[in-house]
Amino acid sequence: MARAVVLRLLTGAPRSRAQLEQALAKRDVPEGVAARVLDRFTDVGLVDDEEYARTLVRSRHRERGLSRRALGTELRRKGIDDETAAAALEEVDGDDEVHAARELVAKKLRTTASLATDVRVRRTYAALARKGYPPGLVGGLVREALAAEGADDEGPAWSDAES
Question: Pick from 98, 93, 95: which is nearest to 139 by CA?
Answer without folding.
Answer: 98
